[in-house]
Each structure stands twice: as C-alpha cells, then as structure tokens.
Write a structure and sequence with these properties.
heterodimer, A: 80 residues, mainly alpha, globular, B: alpha/beta, five-stranded mixed beta sheet, 27% helix
C-alpha cells in the first residue's frame, strides 16, 4: 500500500483514545501526544507493520520524534 | 532451512492441566488503574493460573499423565519414549524426564530426556518425538510429549513488564508410530541466538552462577524492579523479532509443502501477546476466526500455550489442516502444518491445590 501522511495520522489518532481526532500534525511529537510508555511503543510498531508491511525496531523508534519522522522511516523502508 | 517432513506417525491425543488458583490483572495494584487497563488491552491477558510454591511442573505433569492413563487404553509399559519440554525443572541435575519416568512407573526400556526450550518448545518437541518415532520404524511405538512450565516461579511482583504476562500450565501429547498412516506433519524450525538477551534469566547457570547479588531486587526503570533470577524481557526487541520472523516462517512452510494458506483451517499461535498475534494474523491476511486464543484466561503459558489453546477452544481439528507456531526465548521459533485424523482433544484438567 502506498503510504499517505494523512491516512497515517488518522490511523494513529484512531488507535489512541487520548488523542482527539484532528489534533495531530506532522510536526507533533507522538511521545508528547501520548502518555509515552512501552505499551504505546508496541502499538506504534504494530500499526506500522499492519498498515505498511514495514517492521520498525525499538532502536529505529527511538530515533523518531515527530509523526513526520515516523512516516519518513516507513517511506524510506518501502523505497528500498 | 531446517525442514522436517514426517509421515508414519499419528498424534492421538492432546490434553492440558492448570492449577485452580486464578490471579486477575485487574487486581494488580503495583500499577495504576489506567496502566492495568492498557496492559490488559494490549497483551490481552485478563487472568492467569498460579501454581502454589513447591508445586513443580513435573507434579502437574504426573497428575495429567496419570489421568490420561486412567481414561485411555494405553498401558504404561507400552511407552518407549518420554520427552519433557520445559524451562522449569525439579533439579539442576538430572533431567526431569527421568524423574517423571519413575513416578509414572514407566518401564526402564523407555528413552527419556528434557528439551529446555520455552515458547517454541511445543513445536520443537513435536518435531523431535515424531522424528524419533519415524526413525525407529516401529521399534519405538508410543511416546509421551510433556510441555509446560511453572513460569510464575521466576516473576517479580514489582516488575510490570513481566508479572502480568505469565501463567502456569502443562500439556500432554500422545504420539504413535503407524506405518502408512493417514495424515502428516511438516516442520520449519529456526534459531537466532544473537537475540538471547531479549528474553532471559541472567543468573543461575555456569555463565553467571548464583552470587551474593543474585537475589537483591534493583530498580531498572519506573515500575520495573527485579533480581537476577527473575525473567528479563525486552518487549520491543521481542515484538520486532516476531514481526520479522513468524509470518515469514509460516509462509515458507506453506511454500515448502505446496499448501495454500486459504486451505488452512486454524492457526494455533504461541500466546505471548494479543497485539503481537493480531499483527501476525494481519501479516498472513487471514480472518480472525482462524486464530483461537487462550491468552485472556491463562496468559503466556510458555511451551504449553499451543496445546492449551487447542484444549480450551475444543475446535474440531482432527480432519482439518492446522498450523502450529511457537516463537520466543532463544531466540527460537518453529511452525508445523499438520493433518491428524486420529487426534482426540481431551477436556481441561483443573488441579485443586488449595
């Protein structure tokens, strides 16, 4: 599936109750938007694997801060 | 790749036993109510079974196997092979299988040994038992495969990353040699020891023997206290490993055996984490109803999780094409595809200890 940034944001908003729809932007820090913990990390990993068939490891996740940087990671893996 | 294609062997029964004591994650007061809700949502574990301290995996295994003998036509002196798959043994030496052979009153002409694998252990154990029976060409006729753990023994209440996950359970699978048997079982078995420290117990082996520091609880991070005899899990790395390897292993097995995934009736996955298994299901693009669960009521039951899921769901899997897949500690993972028309699923045995 071709990744689309808006769809990606909607997916994250859908998955987490604490994020109100329409509040997340590409420059948002997903850690700040969430009460960040190890469970949230697993949920983000699962969304990326399920939606894009790309696996993001904990080290790669640590290097991402904004929603845009997560999306860029996915795009970079898909273009290999 | 390590494939094994076994014929002339039939799996005749699968049974499982659990201790009666239920521990609910809703009552886990080491973490906040909000955290409890998220742990239950993500892992899927609502409750587990706990064996009392002093009850070993072998104690549960002996009761389960005695119950099997009582209700079946199998004679004790017919058992030629006993394999015990477990990470919770009675003694450092000898293998627990030897103790179980004696307690069950099995003959001396019985091969018995342990396979100390965890999450992948059921599928690995099946592969070893089936291979030996087939290699015996009828000289070895009947085998008992016991798989399970008293995993709660190595948990620390103050470690939120492990305590809510595990439960105790033991399974028994009976397997026979039968020339020209209808049915088959084919395996794909893999290993990556590079990830050993993603899921391990640091002390107590010869690499790091017990020492003055072993049993001292230390704070690792907020909400995570443990000592060096407690199990350590790096959840992110384990999750990453399963996302990369498990669906791939199953797809390779299907290609090797020339089977279509649509014709697989059920997938019995190791029960580690609901989110993990849901993601594997999505990777395989298969419907939810093909993936029975036991994690909600029993948690992660190590090498018993696949047979426990089979027993507690009571799906009609004889005459069905079924995939089994175990993955985790090692890192070690394996799957099997089977059609076993002689298979009988026995009811769950609940053992009252208190």
């Amino acid at each position: 599936m071709q990744p689309n940034l808006e769809d990606f944001i909607s997916k994250i908003e859908d998955e987490f109750e604490e994020i109100k729809p329409g509040t997340l932007s590409p420059s948002s820090s997903f850690r700040e938007a969430l009460n960040w913990n190890s469970m949230n990390a697993l949920i983000i990993m699962a969304i990326i694997t399920s939606e894009f068939e790309v696996v993001i490891g904990p080290e790669d996740l640590k290097n991402c801060d904004t929603v845009q940087s997560l999306f860029d990671f996915v795009v970079s893996k898909l273009s290999i | 790749m390590a494939y094994l294609d076994i014929k002339n062997v039939i799996i005749t029964s699968i049974s499982a036993a659990v201790p009666n004591r239920i521990v609910k994650n809703a009552d886990y007061d080491w973490i906040t109510e909000e955290e409890r809700k998220q742990v239950i949502d993500v892992t899927g574990v609502e409750q587990r079974r706990f064996a009392p301290r002093g009850i070993c995996t072998s104690d549960i295994a002996v009761e389960l196997t005695q119950s099997f003998f009582k209700n079946s036509k199998w004679q004790r002196d017919e058992v030629d092979l006993l394999v015990y798959v477990s990470q919770s043994r009675d003694y450092v030496l000898p293998n627990t299988a030897c103790l179980i052979q004696n307690r069950l009153g099995l003959k001396k002409g019985c091969m018995a040994f342990d396979i100390p694998l965890g999450c992948s252990g059921y599928v690995y154990g099946l592969s070893v038992v089936c291979s030996l029976l087939e290699a015996g060409k009828g000289l070895l006729k009947k085998a008992l495969l016991i798989a399970g753990d008293v995993s709660t023994y190595d948990l620390n209440y103050r470690d939120k990353s492990t305590y809510p996950l595990f439960g105790d359970a033991v399974s028994l699978t009976t397997i026979e040699y039968k020339q020209n048997a209808e049915g088959y079982i084919t395996f794909n078995l893999q290993t990556d020891g590079g990830g050993f420290d993603a899921l391990y117990i640091p002390d107590g082996g010869t690499r790091n023997n017990f020492n003055d520091d072993t049993f001292i609880d230390k704070e690792i991070s907020p909400g995570i206290w443990r000592n060096k005899k407690n199990v350590v899990i790096d959840g992110g790395r384990v999750f990453q490993f399963t996302m990369i390897e498990v669906a791939k292993n199953i797809k390779e097995l299907l290609t090797f055996t020339n089977k279509e995934i649509e014709k697989v009736d059920y997938f019995f996955l190791h029960q580690a984490n609901k989110l993990m298994n849901t993601t594997i299901r999505k990777q395989l693009k298969q419907p939810d109803e093909k993936f029975p669960f036991s994690i909600a009521k029993f948690g992660n039951t190590s090498s018993a999780s696949i047979p426990l899921t089979i027993v507690t769901n009571q799906k009609p899997i004889a005459n069905r094409q079924v995939v089994l897949s175990g993955f985790g500690v090692g890192l070690s993972w394996a799957s099997a595809i089977m059609y076993q028309p002689s298979l009988e699923i026995l009811p769950l045995l609940e053992l009252n200890y208190e």
